[in-house]
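Schema walkthrough. Field components (list of strings):
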Amino acid sequence: MRHLRLLACVLPVTAMLAGCDENLSDLTGPTPNLAPNFASIQKEIFSTQDSSGRQSCIQCHTSVGRTPAAGLNLVEGASFAALVGRPSVQKSGETLVIPGDPDNSYLVKKLEGATGIAGLRMPRNNGPFLTEGQMLVIRRWIKEGAANN
Amino acid sequence: MKSFVSISALALAVALGVAPLAVAAPLNDPKDALKKTDSAATAPADAGPAETGPGDADPVDAVADAEQDDDPDTDVNRAQPDFTIVGLPTTLRLARHKSAFRMTHRFGRPLGEGSLTNLAEDFFGFDSGANIGFEYRYGLFKSTQIAVHRTNNRTIQFLLQRQVKGQDDTFPLSIDVFGSAEGTNNFRDSYSPGLGVVVSREFTDRAAVYAQPFWVNNTNPLPGELVDDNNSVMLGLGARVRLTASVYGVFEVTPRVNGYDPGDHQMSFGIEKRAGGHNFQINFSNAFGTTFGQMARGGNDDWYIGFNLSRKFY
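Field assembly_structure (string):
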């Protein structure tokens, strides 16, 4: 009986603490609202510059008033179709976003400045680049299937 | 290979250092067999600082001492002299309202790095920075103990451990259950609760072996939204063997059998000397973890020296 009483004390504490994980916002730095879903990435990364001084992607990757850089239109409403499963215009043989495979997605390679990319690491003009935490969020979205969520 | 040579040389040095103690130990050995129910004048010197002098004749103290003397949990358990093996818990019971302290160090210099001379110049790693832990343990009720362990990366772990069944003539095992909770940043962030069972088997007063399945939540340092596995299920295995009257060899390994399991499984071995209520242990590990969450994060290919010092306050 005493064992059960002890268990009755320990289990609720365990359950309560199990919900107290690290805060995602502690990791994503200049974009504290960034989450691993496409709507959030569109809003926080593609469409908006952040407090680090990083430029928004749509400054160049837009069809508004110009031809999108590298043929990639990241304006809201067009960006998902332009990214997921689409070949890179800049480098043949590469796919911009391969659902479930962030390591081989060209978008990730361009944002991380991987060796072998064509042209500059993004955002261009030598940064500021995305932080490691921001990249982890983008990678997670791709790994989870790159859904239009 | 270089690492193995370094560790062997160091173990030899430690063994040589311990040898004179081991020779002297049999002189104390018969005292271990004495129970504290003996008079104060014959209290075993090797059984901790429970001695009382002839001048301490306060009747209140005498009653308290008599009650304490009746508690078998204050007797020296020669198969399980300490509350931990290296990092994993044992089933040693802490007497009610008694306490114990433990200090752990895991030095950061890989033993396989550089030459043996270079290693000796660094005093076998003792010159390097260390992951340091302080632990205080208290006997809350009979068979129930709590502990708080803080490491110098500001992680604090609380532990509640209770013996469900003790080994005796009718049952061959001791079984403890435990619940733990650790948090980083002085228990303000990133909580990792854990639950587990410790099963032990003592072989006379010569050895004890352990198997302890346990689960720890939030073991992945990344937020749950970004990871596949944020729990670890581990199966701690360990042993302590008494080599001479008061010198022990210890070994433990903590394979992660499910969930988050980066790097190598944490493994440790060491040699220790019991002296009264103290335990002095030199150990070698492939990781620095002394809390359950840290153990879940595994180790690497290198080996590191460390030590545990513990003291029972009874």
